[in-house]
Structures are given as structure tokens and as C-alpha cells.
Amino acid sequence: MNEFWVLVTGSLVGITCGLTGVFLILRKMAMIADAISHTVLFGIVMAFIITQSLNGIWMMLGAGIAGVITAYLVQVLQSNGLQEDASIGVVFTTLFAVGVLLITLFAGNVHLDVEHVLMGEIAFVPWNTWTFMNLTMPKAVWMLLFVLLINILFLLGFYKEIKLSTFDPIFAMSIGLPLVFLHYAFMTLVSFTTVAAFDSVGAVLVVAMLIVPASTAYLLSKSIKRMIILSMLIGMLSAIGGYYFAKFLDASIAGMMATTAGGIFLLVFLFRPYEGLLMKKRKLVNMNNLTIKS
User: Fold this and answer.
1) Would you kindly state where each structural domain of the chain is located, as residue ranges?
2) pLDDT tens figures, 33-85
3) pLDDT, tens digit, 9 for 90 and up, residues 191-217
4) pLDDT at residue number 109
5) Residue 145's pLDDT is what?
6) Considering the chain, what is the average pLDDT of its residues?
7) Whether CATH 1.10.3470.10 fits 2-124+136-293
8) Sites in the chain below the pLDDT cut of 70
């Protein structure tokens, strides 16, 4: 049964991160995910200091606020002349450092450590359960299902607006779409997704699950809907395959999940039909041979 819940949790991480990651890739915001995955630590610690509770709802609320603050500060620095990568670096290192400092000062005696937040431990997930309506499941599963539902509802409700603002923001602004609201709402979703995955893959490795499956799907897709479906499937496959590889090698489960996602990306990058790197080189060699023969 423990193995079942580990697989369910990992699959939900892959599906949820795969769904959210699609628009991170399309909106060219991959590195902001790295920033948010670190700065949510600041939000989690602040939520604990204020509420003196490790309740998942408060943690998620604190993470969401931290994500919005991160996106806002990055935007402010960019608007005032600092380059995007430098803005992200300044914001996430500063807020992450403040989060670590607050843990040492105010949360040293509670189960809230930096290593757990960064690396996670999916093998322990089945032991921390919640019961709702006589249904008992791991806390991580409840949180991931909740966040997945929020992501789905948001995308269903604002799919056209998100799509238009992603590919043609100037036209979207001209017809009065609330671009600021959409941007910060999406950053909040990224924050929620990140904190929901803490118990399984941790804040650092969740970046891989947010970015790599969606990047792989991008290479294989000609439409957003296809990209979304493929990203979710690749995320789930990475989680399940990574678990069994880790079990076989007696290695880190979370690390192997991220490694599996990277391996799938590499295979697609090299061997995808017509446009893969090796396929292009093979086609070039064939063309050169034909030229020489002629």
C-alpha cells in the first residue's frame, strides 16, 4: 500500500507540474519557477510565525503570497532597468536567505527544516495522512488533488485569455484583457503547485518537474492542447519510471524522477522524427552523399 501511495503522489506531481509548466514555457518564464520554488520558503516560514501552525492551508496561502511578491519584485526591478535574469537572481536569493534566517530564529524547534523543503522525501508521504469525509489519504495527495483542481478550473475559466496574452500580449491589452491579474494569478498557481510538491520532490527538484516535461512536450507539439496532454503524460511517466529506477538502483526517488524526466527530454531532443538532432545530422549526411554521387 505504501508503494501505491508513493506512485499516486509522484504521478500527481508529474501531472500537476506538467499542466502548470506548459504556460511557463510558452510565456518564457521558466526561470521564474526556479525563483518561486525558493522564495516560497519565505512565505511558509512567515505563515508559521503568524499562525504558529503547520496546517497545509496556511502553508499554501503563505506560499501563494510569496510567489506574488516574487513576481512583483522581479517586475519592479525589470521596469527600472535591471536585466530579467539579474532581477530573478536578486529577488530569489534575497528572499530565500531571509526564509532560512527566519527558520533559524523562530522555527528551530519545529519540523520545518531547509533540507526537507529543498529535497523532499516521497518515501515518507504515506505516513502523514488526513481524513476527510471518512476517506483517509496522505496529506500530499490531498494537497496535490486540491491544487490540480484549482489549476484545471483556472485554465478552463481563462484558457482563451491566457492563450491570447501568451502569444499576443499587445493585442490582448488593446481589447482590455486584465493582463496584470492574469500574470499574478498564474504566479500564485505556480506557488501553490510548488508548495504542494514539497513533501514529494522538494522545492529544488520540483523545478525539473515544472520545466522538463513541458519542454519535452513543446518539442513534440504543434498545438497547446496537445502540448498540455503530452506534458502531463510525460510528467506522470517520469514519476512512475523514476520510482522503479530508484527502487532498482537503491537511489533517491525524487532525484531519479527528475533524472528520468531529463532522460526522456534527451531522447526526444535527439531522436524526434525529422527535427531531432541526430535525425537532422543523418539527413545532412544523406544529402551530402547524394551531392557527391551526382
Assistant:
1) 2-124+136-293
2) 878 878 878 888 888 888 877 666 787 788 778 888 888 888 889 888 888 88
3) 888 877 765 667 667 888 999 999 999
4) 61
5) 92
6) 83
7) yes
8) 1, 54-56, 107-120, 198-201, 203-204, 274, 276-294
CB within 8 Å of 196: residues ≥ 6 apart: 16, 60, 140, 143, 144, 146, 147
Give the position of cell 501531472. Answer: 15
In whole angstroms, what is the distance from residue 119 CA to residue 148 CA?
A: 21
